[in-house]
Every structure is written in structure tokens, then in C-alpha cells.
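Hey,
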Amino acid sequence: MNKQLIECVPNFSEGQNMLVIKQITDQIESVEGVKLLDIDPGKATNRTVVTFVGTPEAVVQAAFLAIRKASEIIDMSKHKGEHPRFGATDVCPLIPVSGITMEETAQYARKLAQRVGEELQIPVYLYESAASTPERQNLSTVRAGEYEGLPEKLTNPDWIPDFGPAQFTPLVAKTGATAIGARDFLVAYNINLNTTSVRRANAIAFDVREAGRVLRKGNPITGEILRDENGEPLRRPGVLKSVKAIGWYIEEYGIAQISMNLTNISITPVHVAFEEVCQSAQERGIRVTGSEIVGLVPLKAMLDAGKYFLRKQQRSVGVPDEELVKIAVKSLGLHDLAPFDPRKKIIEYVLEDMENNPAPLVSLSLKAFSNETASELPAPGGGSVAAYLGALGAALATMVANLSAHKRGWDERWEEFSDWAEKGQALKNQLLLMVDEDTRAFNGIIDAVRLPKQTNAEKVARTQAIELATQYATQTPFRVMQLALQSMEVIKAMALEGNPNSVSDAGVGAACALAAVKGACLNVLTNAKDLQDRRFADEKTTAALQMLQTAQEQEQIITNIVLARMNG
């Protein structure tokens, strides 16, 4: 995806009156080039997290309109809630999604902040990657004192806003201040406890969060704070890096929670945070009953969690993504407080569902796909069918690997077969993507052919477009050949080592893989003959024929192995 996309996750200080929130989100949806992904209100926190995505300029415009509307209809002088806050639009981070760097995203955040400060006269503090000074990078530092501390904060020379008024005007008394920044993807994650004690919840939070707890003399709660030579409080660090956490009581559910911000899930993934809280809670005689994700979560976080919990059970992780997500949801207790719908909570799924034409062929039933192929239209054709055959071959190899991982008496080999199953799943997923990609490549040629050709310039542009489209239509089945041939490694391993009761399935998988390689090869040769760049065409043709020969040899070897094991 070459188009620049950024995500915006503003937090508004209203979580009880959905009519107010709708007025704000209506502003966001009014901007072309923006898609509203999620609205997540919290009654106890009196706060709503909104998530939308779009092109940078469109996101900045939508964010500005939302901040303006919030300043008009939310009165911070009357606001109460469990979550730290200091403004009607409390925070407004921009997050790079694709085609854009963090520094570029930070520039858009500064642009938005300047506009909010100058046009709306709201004090704005830049934070995280957009921060004007290192001291302002941390959001909790920027928001220290909350709304009630703003009158004093705005007069402090060290805390003059980056944009907007440095005084507590009547307007600011209503709107509060806003923090605008650029950051990596943050997962807002709450873990539920079977206690109502905020003090005990905070003790757990202090155990796990990176900042840890302040050290005190004598009594760890009321004792005098110990300080270093610079007067800064001494701390005992927590066990989890890139994690912020506090304990609070949620009256709506009658429980205490650990409220966490996981600021870098490649350092501390969701499942690691969950397990550490479980351990700390258990040491205090408290049990974790489940958890909740506020806003959206990346698919990778859920897949990693699913694999982690399967490995704890010594079970194969080479299962479909949907199964990994299901395992993650159950293991993390994400249904504890409310149903968790992956299609509405996982960012990739939400974006996929919002696309006008997402993977139309792969989404069809088997019957519908065969009927579509049999229609009078030229696509889908042999290329898409070849890719699907390859996916079926990889799927059969994966099935044998999973059956072998769970075979009675082979417990010590579960990880060996899990690794093979994971490889098979990855190849299967890539081949499934190629089913629709082959049709898109074919349609690209058709679109190029239909370009105007009245003038010389149009003729040249049309010829170039046809050449590029044909090159891509040659590369696509070539990639199918590569993937299907790679799958034969997994198929062969399962024919040799896999569950003997399923060895014939490995043989069928090899036949599918060979059919995929042969079918895709025919498409490479067909498209390559029309190319003007003969060097490119000859290279692809020669390599394709070599792969076909290798696939034929490997399929025969696998068939012989299968027959020997079946008769042995």
C-alpha cells in the first residue's frame, strides 16, 4: 500500500451522553478521505476513545473539527471521571499506519496543534514524538495536575503551552487543555480483578509498570518518600518495559481493574502484560477474571497471544488466524465484561471490512467460486485456480503436521510438527492472497488496453501502461509457482515423518502443488510472450520452466514415499 495513512485516536471527556459523542463523531465522518473505525465509551471513566484513519490532511481536518465541536459541547468545569484528564479533548495522538514516517506524522501533529491553539484558543501541549522538549514527551508528565491544576500550571514558566493561551481564561475554564502528539501504536488494555480494592489494584500496577513504585522510609504507603541527591524520588522499577499502569475501581462493573497503556507491544506484548498481572495478583490472593481492550488492537498482538497460549499447552501453533484469535480471546478473558467481536476490535479486520471490494474471490463459498470460474467472463481463470490449488496443497500438508503434533505417543515431537504447520499456514495464506491478485493483474491489462489512443502522447502512455501491466501479470503467476514449490518442502517432510494415518493426504497435497506450479507456469509463458522487454520475458520463462521441472521431480519423489509408507 503506497498511499499515506495515519490513525487518530482522540480521547474525549464524555462517556455517558452518547448524543454528545455523536455530535463529535459526525464531524469526523463529514470529512472525505477519513473512515471512522471505533467508538469506545466508558461510563465510569466518563471518557470516550474514538479511532479513525485516513490520509494525513484529511485526518488533521477531521481531528480539528472534532476538537472544535468538543470544546463547544463539553464543559470541563463540571466533568468528573476515574481517568486522569485535563481537557474536553484530553489527548489526540496521530499514529503512522502506512507509507509515512514517524517524523512526517509528528509534523502533521504540530500542524494540528498550531491550528487548535491559534484558531480555537485552547492551550495545547505537544507530546511523545511531536514533543518540543524531552521533558514533555511523557503524557502523564504533561497532564500532571489534571484539569484542577491548570490555573497554576498555565502560569508556570516551565509549562507554557506550545500553542494557545498561557492563561486560565473563561474559555479555557470550559475547554481545559489538549495534548496532541505522534506515537507508535498504543494498546489501551484493562485487566479485571476479583476485588474492589483500589489500593491492592495499585500495588499490582506498581509491580508491573515500568515506573514501578516510589520508595518510602518505614511504612511503604504512608512513610516519608526517599529521594536522591537531586531531590528526585527513588523508585523500584516494575518488571514490564514500555508499560504504564494504575489501579482503579469501575463502579459500572463493581470491580477493580489494572488500567494499562502498552506503548510498545513489540517490547511488552498483550499476553506478557496479562501473565505478569496474573502472577502479581495471585501473590496477593487476588484472581484475574478477564480483561478488555479499549479501542482497537493490531492483529499481530492477537496472533502472538494465541500462539503463546497454545505453546503453553504444547499444542501446534500452525492453525488458521481465526483459531489463534479465538484462543487469544478465551485465554485473555476478553469476553468477561462484554462480547469481544474480532471484526470490530482488530484494526486490520475493520479496515478490510470497510474496503469496497476486499478479496472477492477468496470470500466466496466453494460452490460460488466454481460457478464464478465457469461463467462467461475471462476472470477468474487458470491463474486464480492455480493459486487456489497451491493453497489446498499447503493446507493438506499443514493438516498432516497438526495431526502429527497431537498424535498420541508423539508428545515429545509436538514442537517439531508445530514448526512445520506454521510454515504451511504461512504459505497457504500467501497463496490465498494470490487467488485475487491474479485476477487483479489480468484486469490491469484490460484497463491498460482500454486507455485512449487518439494522440501520439496517448499512444505512448497506453503502450507503456500495457507493458507494465503485462509484466505484473507475468510476475504474479511466477510468484504462485515459487510459493507452491516451497510448499513441497513441507509436504515432503510430512510424507516422510508425519502421522502414518494421514500419509495419503500428503500425496494429494503434492498433486495439488504440482498442478499449481504447472498451471501458473502456463500463465507465465502466456503473458511473457506479449512483453516488449525480451530480457525480462526470457528470464521469467527460463526460470519458470526450471521450477516446473523441479516440481515434477519432487512430486514423483513424494508420491513414491507415500506409496512406500502406505504399503510398508
